Amino acid sequence: MTGTSAPGGRGTAPAGGLGATFALTDRTALVTGAAGGLGRAFAVALAAAGADVVLTDRPGVDLTATSALVEATGRTSWIRPFDLADTAGLAGYVDELRADVGPLHILVNNAGTAALERFNEVTVASWRRVLAVNLDAVFFLSQRIAEHMIADRVPGRIIAVTSKNAHVAEAGLAHYNASKAGVDLLVQSLAVELAPHDITVNAVAPGMVETPIDGEFPLDREPFEAAYRERIPLGRYADPNECAGAVVFLASPAASYVTGTRIVVDGGVLADQMPRMRYMPPYRNSL
Fold this sequence. Notes:
alpha/beta; about 10% strand
């Protein structure tokens, strides 16, 4: 069954054509893990769509390059570092942000950490660090920001950056896999609870991206990279900017009726049960 909203009512598409549908004018976004890689790409793309952006990363990490790129679009940026592993401090951090920059309309939970360790090498400290940043921070940051969105009567957008690892495991990443799978179901839980407040909650699940997160993993790098690229149907890693469009879409009025779901940006990895193509006969062209 389909229906339409009353003119000007909740859920009505904005006037002004396609550009207005994706515009983020008069919105303020918070992007975690914004110093580089995916976080920087997300922050700059949101700014290019019209949003002002709060940038956060660990204390001591340089956010000035991302800030300059955001401001080059004509938008405002604020640098507000915070260690997301400090779970108990997240509510106070959000309260200070709200007092400082005004209402927050968009949250992009991008920050993540990982360690390549066999399951019997994972220590309590390593497990807790990965889960604290990748799962606990996503929940408690979303919780407090959602409370402010409700108080400010903001039709908010909460976006969690998960991974293909939320759906298919990789060896040596038990804690990372578990954290991303947890976020995937958390997104659905929050989407249900926040829907009455006109706050949508969704995920973007990238595949292999040219980012520094696994750059120091103890791997035999060249053969690993070559084998992984063969495993990807599109045959290459993603540029971070290729994942940014999904975030802008989910943050925009165009996604006002999209909640509790995920957009997978993985070059086709999850679609391919077995990398069989390279063992098959060549295509027979019928043209």
